Structure formats: C-alpha cells, structure tokens
Amino acid sequence: MAIQAGKTATLTVEGTRVFAEVFVPASILLVVGASHVAMPMVTLAKVLGFKTIVVDGRPRFATRERFPDVDDLRIGIPSDLVKDVPLVASTALVLVAHDYKYDLPVLRHALATPVGYVGLLGSSRRGKAILDLLQEDGVTEDALARVHVPIGLDLGAQSAPEIALAVVAEILAVQRGATGLPISEKVRRGLK
C-alpha cells in the first residue's frame, strides 16, 4: 500500500506495526521551449525537488546562462528529444514554445504515453485550434481531455514568474489529486 502510493507510512502487517519508508525517484518536469516563463518555472520546480529538463531547437535561448538551475538542457528537434525522456505518471510535460511545429508532434507523442500532466501555454482559442488539429489527426477525445490549456491555477498571474508559479501549482495539484482550492474554502466546504 505505502509502496504503491509512494508515501512513507506506518502499517500493520500480520499483526505487527511496521514503518515503511518509501524512496521514489524525483518527478520530472519536462519543458518544451526555453521561454521567459520556462526560466522561473525550472527554478521553482527544482526547489520543489523535480528533476528538470528543458528542450528547445534554438541554441540562443536554451543556454546555461538563462537556465542555471536546470538539470538537463537539450538542444535539437523537440519531438525527437522528448522521446528520450520517460513520459510516465510522475512526469509533467509543459509546452511553452508557442510554436505549432514543436507543439503538435510533441503532443501527438505524449498523448500516447501515460505522462501524468500535459500543459500547453496559450489562450483558449490557440488551445482549441491545436486540439482540433490533433483530433483531425485521429487523437481521441479522452487523450485530448488530458491537455491542460490554458495552463496554471487562477492566481491572477501577469508576469513570467507569476505564470510559472501558477503552472507549477497546478502540476502539484494534479499530481497529488488536490482540488486547487484555497485551504480555507476546503474547510468551509468540509472537503478533505
């Protein structure tokens, strides 16, 4: 039970109390696009214990100077590079490149995997256009429903660091099955 949940716990096994300390690999934050939003997002995720990976086809943006906290910086064709990253339940994929030629092939690949979070930066209109193109290509409604667009919790974010915070907060809420509500609101509603 504790191992499956990935959480340390005290259990009773055959009448004996046992302390099970579970060590799981760090969740991965895979960011496609070395944008201004990606920079603070990587720093926040790193502080929270994520392994961070940034991929971009533009060497002038994907630099160590812009991403001093990133664990892995990859330059090349994003749709090829993401295939080398385990897109599993504990991986969060965020597309912030704002480029259809990056977004569409990466999404096609990711939605065929069990990746735990898929987020696409952009307006509702842009998101709908991309999802419509994917649907025309045969991606199922269930797969498309996994894409968070626009991304982030509603924090009233305006600057790149604020948007990054909203996105990382949404990733944590999704990974942990949380509501994303203010805790005071959860208490008022009697939610756990």
Entry keywords:
globular; alpha/beta; 36% helix; 192 residues
Structure description:
The chain is of the alpha/beta class and 192 residues long. It is 36% helix and 19% strand. The chain is built from eight helices and eight strands. It has helices at 2-5, 38-47, 78-81, 100-110, 124-136, 141-144, 160-176, 183-189; strands spanning 9-13, 16-20, 28-32, 51-56, 72-75, 91-95, 117-120, 147-148. The strands form two sheets. Strands 5-4-3-6-7-8 form a six-stranded parallel sheet, with helices on both faces. A two-stranded antiparallel sheet has the order 1-2.
How far is the first residue's CA from the last residue's CA? 20 Å
Approximate strand percentage: 15-25%
Secondary-structure element order, N to C? HEEEHEEHEHEHHEHH
Q: What is the number of beta strands? A: 8
* Helix-residue proportion: 25-40%
Structural class: alpha/beta
- Mean pLDDT across the residues is 92
Enumerate the strands of the largest sheet in spatial order, edge to edge or round the barrel.
Answer: 5-4-3-6-7-8
Q: Give the biggest beta sheet.
A: 6 strands, parallel
Shape label: globular
- Rg calc: 18 Å
Low-confidence stretches: none
Number of helices: 8
Sum this structure up briefly.
Helix content is 36%, strand content 19%. The chain has eight helices and eight strands, in the order H-E-E-E-H-E-E-H-E-H-E-H-H-E-H-H.
